[in-house]
Q: What sequence folds into this?
């Protein structure tokens, strides 16, 4: 395909390859079919599983209230009906974006007229714990199954240490508390979730842990996780408790905590290593323009996509790790590919995410910034049910609700329209 023809969009009878059988990747493939693409369509994923939903992993799947098959987003019959060739268990290791050639782990090469990159992100791990089966993360269906098995093997009173009090860590702590575990959450920052929701709201959300009997320790890091037989280069510290099944978690304070299960939730890294020799711009993700193009006839979507977002006078390069944004971005990346670079519209979502912790639903619209002005417009932090707004430069930038889903959604059209701070704070909610 010539450089000029890529501007005209993906030919409807060509070949499209979506790399990453994630939510974003699946939505991209579905959209290509729904909007007229009739050619060969391949969905490449490094996991053996068909595309599945991740939010329930830390909640319903870990708790055992949902069987794993319930999180599947598209089974084989659905994919076959859409003529999507799912290549599961076969990761991509290289991309030539000019020739649009994708090299797979087995050495085979796929040639395409258009490519969507949606390989997501992988959890960060504690240095020195690589290969330690006692230290787990929660990102995949297999991770959730393994974590549940470890917790159930110990039964009630299982000592769970969660490293990181972000949304994933807090959800894991909540679910494990519901399984009658003794849970300790370790957080290096003074206030959990402060980078995501600010100090004031972060402090309010931190109280949820204590309400469920979960111990939250802040301003503390982890220096090592030792197995039950002790550190490889010596003996346990004097006064250390008897080890748990997982061993000990050693804190920066020098304290040793016995743990039966250790879960690390300290963020993720975009899966871009396979693109290092591609010539694409990589900077904490795949750098895209406002229409999600990383190169001609190559778009990106999901947790690894960093795109140019122009909204309300702001011009930002952003990467957002939310379910709703990933789903919408998969749709937008497919539409951009079909339209071509000259005609594709800008991707301009109203970001939304939620978190269920200790029986409480936390929801956020927009993009809060720790430096934003915060105003409670319904309820209060003391009540534990409230709506708070975030403002910057005279405009509404985000809205957060705890236990107030209907009232939160009243602010969605205001965020979409770029409403002023005064208009937002004056909105009647009754």
A:
């Amino acid at each position: 395909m010539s450089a000029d023809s890529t501007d005209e969009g993906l030919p409807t009878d060509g070949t499209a390859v979506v790399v990453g059988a994630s939510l974003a990747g699946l939505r991209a493939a579905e959209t290509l079919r729904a909007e007229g693409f009739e050619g060969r369509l391949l969905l490449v994923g490094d996991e053996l599983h068909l595309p599945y939903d991740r939010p329930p992993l830390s909640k319903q799947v870990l708790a055992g209230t949902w069987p794993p098959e319930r999180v599947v987003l598209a089974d084989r019959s659905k994919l076959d009906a859409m003529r999507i060739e799912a290549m599961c268990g076969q990761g991509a290791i290289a991309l030539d974006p000019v020739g649009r050639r994708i090299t797979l782990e087995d050495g085979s090469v796929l040639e395409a007229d258009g490519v969507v990159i949606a390989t997501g992100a992988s959890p960060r791990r504690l240095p020195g714990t690589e290969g330690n089966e006692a230290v787990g993360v929660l990102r995949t269906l297999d991770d959730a199954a393994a974590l549940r098995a470890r917790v159930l093997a110990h039964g009630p009173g299982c000592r769970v240490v969660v490293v990181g009090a972000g949304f994933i860590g807090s959800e894991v702590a909540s679910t494990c508390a519901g399984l009658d575990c003794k849970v300790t959450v370790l957080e290096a920052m003074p206030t959990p979730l402060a980078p995501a929701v600010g100090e004031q709201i972060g402090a309010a959300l931190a109280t949820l842990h204590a309400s469920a009997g979960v111990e939250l320790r802040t301003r503390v890091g982890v220096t090592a996780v030792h197995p039950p037989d002790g550190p490889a280069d010596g003996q346990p510290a004097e006064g250390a408790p008897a080890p748990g099944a997982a061993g000990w978690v050693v804190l920066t304070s020098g304290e040793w905590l016995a743990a039966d299960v250790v879960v690390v939730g300290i963020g993720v890294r975009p899966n871009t290593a396979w693109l290092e020799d591609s010539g694409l711009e990589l900077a904490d993700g795949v750098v895209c323009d406002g229409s999600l193009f990383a190169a001609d006839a190559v778009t990106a979507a999901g947790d690894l996509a960093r795109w140019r977002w122009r909204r309300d006078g702001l011009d930002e390069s952003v990467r957002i790790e939310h379910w709703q944004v990933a789903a919408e971005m998969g749709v937008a990346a497919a539409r951009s590919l079909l339209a071509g670079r000259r005609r594709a519209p800008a991707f301009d979502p109203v970001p939304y995410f939620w978190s269920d912790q200790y029986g409480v639903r936390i929801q956020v619209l927009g993009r809060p910034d720790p430096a934003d002005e915060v105003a409670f417009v319904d309820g209060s932090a003391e009540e534990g049910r409230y709506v708070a707004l975030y403002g910057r430069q005279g405009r509404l930038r985000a809205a957060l609700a705890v236990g107030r889903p209907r009232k939160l959604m009243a602010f969605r059209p205001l965020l979409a329209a770029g409403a002023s701070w005064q208009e937002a704070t004056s909105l009647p909610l009754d």
Notes: The first strand starts at residue 15 and ends at 19. The radius of gyration is 23 Å. Residues 323-339 form the longest helix (17 residues). The domain at 135-264 is CATH 3.50.50.60 (FAD/NAD(P)-binding domain).
